[in-house]
């Protein structure tokens, strides 16, 4: 069956045997359960962030930021970082504190006035100075790929977690369970040698929707673990170069999933037997997964840049429930890859 005929099957909702491949009884409950889980976690996180902040009276002196006779912020230096009025949140060293604030008769109005807006925190400049003096103190940041080099540890760990999820689902299928016996290497080799043709007998949904989403997840894993790829401006030369590298990463993992030692060919021996008169081991997945998967990555970047960032997030607060929900719904592979690296699904690297 040709590529155009398969696309027509996608549009008409027809599987390889003439039956609808979008079985409402199987797929729709799973989709709604996943969306409900994501939206529930979003609501809980939003509610947790809206808890009121209480300030104890003995600590009020630490909540006073400045008065008119403060030393200018640009003349105060902590470490080697540049500081400015917006970066210093702590009280100035020579700031004047009115004596009535140390009194026990402080009113709740004073708490509300100085509590939230002038909450004492360690100045950002001091944090930067400590980080410059002791880089080893911040090794935890490298887990997320914050160093200039590609984070191989994080990328491989997240990719194998995703691979484990895929094979765990496959092991629930009876056709996979039937082929678990027999000589491992011999059956694996025979399955790989049966690679031929374009159509593998799977439904159009599997080949042209599920596999592109798989390629989008593996491509996003590369982006999340590359500082250059994460920080590249949308549409710049660095952006397209990084997405080309994401395509290579996705192609490598797609090939591993189809033919490698931890693949469909080795676990379940896909390709060992004919299916509907066709070899289940065909080139369609090897080509479609990385190419359309990279297109999914670029599409989600476009949606994030023009719809989420420049439209929706200008109408609502960035930490609101609606923004988090839209981030999950409009960029699903980004949300799923965030979960793989232990981040909230609505996480964004640049904000």
Explained architecture:
The chain is mostly helical and 351 residues long. The protein folds into two domains: 3-48 and 149-340, no CATH class; 57-141, no CATH class. It contains 13 helices and no strands. It is elongated. Mean pLDDT is 74; it is low at 19-31, 48-71, 73-97, 99-106, 116-125 and 135-143.
How do the SSEs run, as a string of H and E? HHHHHHHHHHHHH
What is the first-to-last residue Cα distance?
Answer: 46 Å
Report the biggest beta sheet as strand number plus sense, adding barrel if it closes.
Answer: none
Residue-averaged pLDDT, rounded? 74
Q: What does the overall shape look like?
A: elongated
Quick structural summary:
With 351 residues, the protein is mostly helical. It has helices spanning 3-12, 24-49, 108-115, 124-133, 152-170, 174-178, 184-193, 204-224, 227-231, 237-259, 284-315, 321-330, 332-340. α5 packs antiparallel against α8 (204-224) and α8 crosses α11 (284-315).
SSE blueprint:
Elements: H1 3-12, H2 24-49, H3 108-115, H4 124-133, H5 152-170, H6 174-178, H7 184-193, H8 204-224, H9 227-231, H10 237-259, H11 284-315, H12 321-330, H13 332-340
């Amino acid at each position: 069956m040709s590529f155009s005929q398969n696309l027509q099957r996608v549009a008409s909702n027809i599987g390889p045997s003439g039956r609808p491949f979008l079985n409402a009884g199987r797929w729709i409950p799973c989709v709604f359960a996943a969306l409900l889980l994501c939206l529930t976690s979003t609501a809980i996180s939003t509610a947790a962030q809206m808890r009121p902040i209480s300030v104890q009276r003995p600590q009020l002196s630490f909540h006073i930021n400045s008065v008119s006779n403060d030393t200018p912020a640009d003349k105060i230096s902590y470490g080697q970082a540049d500081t400015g009025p917006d970066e210093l949140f702590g009280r100035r060293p020579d700031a004047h504190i009115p004596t009535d604030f140390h009194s026990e008769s402080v009113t709740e109005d004073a708490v509300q006035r100085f509590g939230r807006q002038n909450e004492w925190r360690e100045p950002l400049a001091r944090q930067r100075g400590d980080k410059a003096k002791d880089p080893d103190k911040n090794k935890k940041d490298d887990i997320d790929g914050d160093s200039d080099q590609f984070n191989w540890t994080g990328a491989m760990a997240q990719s194998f977690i995703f691979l484990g999820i895929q094979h765990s689902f496959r092991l629930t299928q009876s056709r996979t369970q039937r082929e678990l016996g027999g000589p491992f290497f011999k059956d694996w080799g025979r399955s790989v040698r049966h690679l031929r043709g374009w159509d593998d007998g799977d439904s159009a949904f599997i080949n042209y929707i599920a596999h592109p989403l798989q390629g989008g997840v593996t491509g996003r894993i590369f982006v999340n673990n590359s500082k250059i790829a994460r920080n590249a401006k949308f549409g710049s030369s660095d952006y397209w170069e990084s997405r080309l590298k994401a395509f290579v990463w996705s192609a490598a993992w797609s090939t591993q999933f189809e033919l490698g030692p931890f693949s469909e060919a080795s676990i379940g021996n896909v390709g060992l037997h004919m299916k509907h008169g066709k070899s289940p081991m065909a080139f369609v997945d090897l080509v479609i997964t990385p190419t359309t998967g990279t297109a999914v990555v670029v599409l989600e970047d476009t949606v994030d840049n023009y719809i989420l960032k420049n439209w929706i997030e200008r109408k609502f607060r960035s930490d609101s429930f609606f923004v988090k929900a839209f981030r999950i719904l409009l960029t699903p592979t980004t949300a799923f890859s965030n979960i793989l690296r232990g981040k909230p699904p609505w996480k964004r690297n640049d904000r």
